[in-house]
Amino acid sequence: MQSGMSAGGNFALQSEGRDGPHVAIIMDGNGRWAARRGLPRVAGHHAGVAAVRRVVERAPELGIGTLTVYAFSSDNWRRPAFEVRSVLALIAAYLRLERDALREAGVRLEAIGRRDRLPRMLLREIAQCEAATAGGTRLHLRVAVDYSSRDAIARAAARAARGLHGSGTPELVERAMAETLREEGGDVDLLIRTGGEKRLSDFLLWESAYAELVFTDVMWPDFGAADLEAAVEEFRGRERRFGGVPVCERIADSGQRSGNAQVGTTTSAQRAQSSRRETGWVDPVEKAIGVIEPTQAKGGLEWGTVDIGGGR
Fold it and tell me: Residues with catalytic annotation?
């Protein structure tokens, strides 16, 4: 496959002006991977570190600009104390051991999530790794630790309310929240979840509003460069519309209107109306409100209502 991703063809970034797409990964399946091998759950987390390394090495080569990985959720505090301590110690060890390699590779590391509940040894490693890699421009690696998207949204809303002094409209509040969350990493373009589950688990909910989702049955410790490439390839083949009309329909509709103006052919709504008359079927919603149809008018198109019977 191609070694990078561009904004051409069906590919489009959610945010303009970024160096590359934002890919987020829910690294799921460590515990089940270990259980299938008769190993303790912690062994699965250790094996998952190698998968992180493989993905971080391959991501820049695929043109990815930002990579966010879900290392420890706020809900993970509910797990057995031994597992929690082991995971947090493992994250600290990763930051310490990978710090020089990340800096040399041009990777800028940033931890996101709450820091008031993390052990001091982990806070120390986060601070040192963030400082050491601050100059990285090849990849922005974000590690979510003690992270909850609901908590992040609530904090952004509180910050927006303070900035607007309680007088903002819903639109202004939303804009201020979006700016706050965008400062932390921007909208997600592609979200991958390993391990076979199909849910977001309180991860980057706001930022993933228009993200493309890829779910794979591959357990995280087995996830490698080829799996990342496959997900990116699938992403590149999708057409991102952000609530708009598919390109093929826009082209067809444009050509149809042009043809109608020249030869007086019927519109799609008129053909659909004729078909309804032939079959006797009427959509109950359209019956109540009518069908909105663009009509030619002096100076351009105007929107009118085609009454299909019993409408307004």
Answer: 28, 76
